[in-house]
Each structure stands twice: as C-alpha cells, then as structure tokens.
C-alpha cells in the first residue's frame, strides 16, 4: 500500500487531568501515532509530511482505531492509573529514542524517575541530555509517560504541555514532586 491508498488517521478527544487530550490513531495498525494536550491541528503537526498526507477524520466515540486509546484514557481519568500501559503506540526515532521510550513505559503510575535514571535504564548512563530529548520528542503522551521524569533534585523540570499539566497528571497518579506546592501559587 502507498500513502495514497491508506485510510486516513482517526482522531478523538478525551478529558483528562490537565485538560483535553487529542489522540491520532492509525486504522491499519491500531497504534496511537500522536497525542497530547494541544489542538487537533497542532497534534497532527507531530506527524511526518507523508503521514499528514493521509489526512484525518473523527472516529465515532469508542469505535474504530481510537477505541482502545479512548477506553484507556477514560479509565485513566476515572482512577485506573495503569490503564494506559498496554495501548499500542508507534513513533519514529532512532535506537536510543526507542529504548528510552520503552523505559518510560516502565515507570509506573505513582512513581517518578530522573533524566539521569532514564538515561541509565536506556543503556547510556552518560546520555542525560539525550534522555531529556527523548522526553521532549515524545509524540504520544501520556501513553509514553514522560511526565513521570523529574530533575535529579525531584523538581518538575519541563514539560511540552506545561508544568500545570505535568503536576496535574502526577497528582492524579499519587506522585509528589519536590516543587508541587509552588505550582499553583
């Protein structure tokens, strides 16, 4: 199949702590290929030009390629903080990024790790900046939970969707960053 003959991506939106999450899923594989706390257009911009050429259409609520992701997000919002663990995701990236993203999925809800810890678990202990880049380049949040990575001192660090979203997710999961009390002052 060529890009021209593939069906368009399906999209959905689900309310979560921190705001609404847009999900873009591939109807051929069922994998989430982009998601985040941005508009549909901004989330769709995560995709490569070839992927964008496939277009998108809204999926019926709880149906189509987005069904597993929507169901998992709704369970997560309802308190099942482990519901996102088994959703199929796909995003392009080299070997280190793929290892780092796999390791991110191993950080359980309610737990956190540091960028240094992520680099070590991904097999490159000196690659702390690369671990930070893996978080920054993650296109399928919260399914790959980069919000669970904190600075070595336990403070939040950064988050592509803003620190309020990161703090809301961590609070929802029962994790407590060192600087949580200063976020909403």
TrEMBL record:
Domain Methylated-DNA-[protein]-cysteine S-methyltransferase DNA binding: 95-175
InterPro entries assigned to the protein according to its UniProt record, in alphabetical order: MethylDNA_cys_MeTrfase_AS, MethylDNA_cys_MeTrfase_DNA-bd, MethylDNA_cys_MeTrfase_DNAb, WH-like_DNA-bd_sf
Keyword flag DNA damage: yes
Keyword DNA repair part of the UniProt annotation: yes
Enzyme nomenclature, EC number: 2.1.1.63
Alphabetic keyword roster: DNA damage, DNA repair, Methyltransferase, Transferase
Catalytic activity: a 6-O-methyl-2'-deoxyguanosine in DNA + L-cysteinyl-[protein] = S-methyl-L-cysteinyl-[protein] + a 2'-deoxyguanosine in DNA; a 4-O-methyl-thymidine in DNA + L-cysteinyl-[protein] = a thymidine in DNA + S-methyl-L-cysteinyl-[protein]
Enzyme class, broadest EC rank: transferase
Name recorded for this polypeptide: Methylated-DNA--[protein]-cysteine S-methyltransferase
MF terms (GO), sorted A to Z: methylated-DNA-[protein]-cysteine S-methyltransferase activity
GO biological process, one term: methylation
Protein source organism: Longivirga aurantiaca
